[in-house]
Design goal:
2 copies of one chain form a homodimer.
Chain A lengths: L2 H13 L7 E3 L6 E17 L11 H19 L2 E11 L5 H18 L2 E9 L4 E10 L16 E5 L4 H11 L6 H12 L5 H9 L4 E4 L4 H12 L2 E5 L9 H8 L3 H7 L6 E5 L4 H10 L4 E8 L3 E5 L5 E2 L12 H7 L5
Parallel strand pairs in A: 3-4, 8-11
Antiparallel strand pairs in A: 1-2, 2-5, 3-5, 6-9, 6-10, 7-9, 8-10, 11-12
Helix pairs in contact in A: 1-3, 2-3, 2-6, 4-5, 4-8, 6-10, 8-9
């Protein structure tokens, strides 16, 4: 270890706190040690420069926030209580130590807010910036956790919050003009740059009897298809019922897209999509309202094996969400959010 | 998700098994679910093309083995029972799907051998190949775990197995000639390409009363310094007492280095370095022998705050191990293994 690395690691350590009594050892040892009594839920995500983000349109602080938020969103989708996080960073020489620390600070601010402890990680040189995040959550019993494979014919399809905001924010970043009221535009950019995982709602929904759940990271068109495939059912969504963020219609018009198609294909909203039996409807509405994430019912589950996205005339639309391997740049990501029949 | 990604993910799933009853859910959901009753030990490592490895001198199968082995070695250093692993891959377009699957197969073969379950991960496009590995282990009590900060003056310094083999193997890969007997050369290459984590020995040593422990990933010169710094003591190692792999002397001569200096600076042996009180000596020797990793005693702990590497004349040598941020290529890694006063 040279002085430079040691100083950077010390500076990172100084910025991190312990936000949970579970954590017995963090940072400095070969491994972190955490108390666990029941089930541990673990998710891993990698975010790569030029694929998931562009340094031209994100600050390192926002990037740290967003990578951790997106990872924690996987815990929300399962309904686990968030616990710990680990960050493995690939750092090009062009990223200054100050910027690396800003990335850490952005992640740590979110972690502190959510009671999550950043317990460790790794640093490496690399040619492109990447952030690999591991998050762990906790649950007492599998009964309290949702999966992707539980959808049943007759279920209703619900979604938390509003959609399309993150996609609209990305289009704004790329086009640099939008004509929206300043506050509306700022909220869309915030949804793109600093999403918040629906952790409280995820726990509430899993306990309120959802049959299956997933977070909307790659876009409803991709994520709903996963639910349908893992469950072996047909999932029908009426696009006109999608709850849209304010301003999405205006941005969609600029981009030459139908607003619901933008919302269904652009991704990164990190809302929760789930299916539940009709008799759980009232309980779910109350639970999610209490968790600050009101639910909108957008479709139903039928026997079959497909995703059907229906427009206002009942015509099936063919939309694609985000693809981690086929898209080479974050700019492509904006372009990919287009509809095709 | 396009067809290509889905096919690749299906092919990966088909190659992975569950090797532990702890694992309730793996692959396919947003997160894996694992039973834990006591302590969970977690470590994260990133391996980057051109920094930690070169595709010119490693097969993808060996790379998968080595990345997982190096990560599990962190659990060995703590004395945790190995449990689960997660792989986040950055995949350049130049890496074919067949090669990606070979990487997975290499990791899975090791995982199966050790009773470790690969529970999930992530795939992303990238410009350079990277492998971010998260491993989790289990322990019933903190009393059974070792850390880095427990060295005490009067402790003996011990190391498992033999050193220098991985470094010598790397020099052989780069120089393409060595003049060693075929079998000896093959063993050195194997140590470089397919290291084995000292998991059983780590558990045995942690229970046999070591005060502190670390795995030799970056080289004794770097890793012993960490023990000294974290513990706030002076750690004295006599270089002539280092147990060398067969063939290290010959390769060191080709490289113009003293054999012990190669062994102390080159890294990647993944043996365990520890300190223990003299009265634990006999128990430690027996426990590590039973675990297939005989111990050699190479120094002692004194009051102070430094690492002292002494040559056969008692003169202090200044050696450096491997540095993750300052070295840009795996070739540099070989060059870095040189001594300087």
């Amino acid at each position: 270890m040279t002085c430079r690395v040691l100083v950077l690691i010390e500076a990172i350590r100084a910025r991190l706190g312990r936000h949970s009594d579970r954590v017995l050892r963090a940072l400095g040892d070969d491994a972190a040690v955490v108390k666990a009594d029941g089930l541990v839920v673990t998710s891993v995500d990698a975010f790569v420069e030029g694929v998931h983000f562009r340094l031209a349109t994100t600050s390192l602080r926002d990037l740290g926030h967003k990578c951790l938020a997106a990872s924690l969103s996987d815990l929300a989708a399962v309904g686990a209580e968030p616990g710990e996080a680990y960050l493995a960073l690939g750092l090009p020489t062009g990223v200054a130590e100050r910027e690396t620390l800003e990335l850490i600070e952005g992640a740590e601010a979110l972690a502190e807010n959510l009671g999550v402890t950043i317990c460790g990680g790794d640093l490496s040189a690399s040619n492109e910036l990447f952030v690999a995040v591991t998050v762990t959550g906790h649950a007492s019993s599998e009964d309290n956790l949702a999966g992707r494979d539980g959808c049943r014919p007759g279920d209703l399809v619900g979604v938390t919050g509003r959609l399309g905001g993150a996609g609209a924010g990305l289009i704004m970043l790329e086009r640099k003009e939008h004509g929206l009221p300043v506050e509306v535009g700022a909220r869309l950019l915030e949804r793109q740059r600093r999403p918040w995982p629906r952790l409280e709602a995820g726990i509430a929904l899993a306990r309120a009897g959802v049959h299956a759940m997933i977070d909307l990271s790659d876009g409803l068109a991709s994520d709903a298809l996963r639910l349908a495939e893992e469950s072996g059912i047909e999932l029908v969504v009426e696009l006109e019922r999608l709850p849209l963020d304010e301003g999405v219609e205006a941005v969609a018009e600029i981009a030459g897209m139908a607003p619901a198609e933008l919302a269904a294909s652009a991704g990164e909203d990190y809302e929760l999509l789930f299916t539940a039996p009709p008799d759980a409807r009232q309980g779910i509405e109350t639970a999610s309202e209490d968790a600050g994430a009101p639910v909108t019912w957008i479709g139903e589950v039928r026997p079959g094996a497909a995703l059907r996205l229906l427009d206002e005339r009942g015509v099936q639309r063919s939309l694609r969400g985000w693809d981690h391997l086929d898209s080479r740049t974050a700019t492509d990501r904006g372009r990919r959010g287009r509809a095709s029949r």
